[in-house]
Amino acid sequence: MSREKIRPFLITKDEDGNFRLTVRETRYNSQGYPLVTSLLQEEFFKTATAARAHARDVFKAEPGQYATK
Question: Are 11 and 48 in contact (CB under 8 A)?
Fold first, then answer.
């Protein structure tokens, strides 16, 4: 089991060249195992910077909470 903390905001690039934002929530079960719920947002973004700005404005994201894939 990995103890690496999962960053709550994932920014990915789709096959059409648009950037997408996934919001992830981590909970832990009674044995301390992480359970991650992911929700892909409907919005498309032209750049990763635009996706970060959206996460900051809507979800109060802070620097260091982003992961890219």
Answer: yes
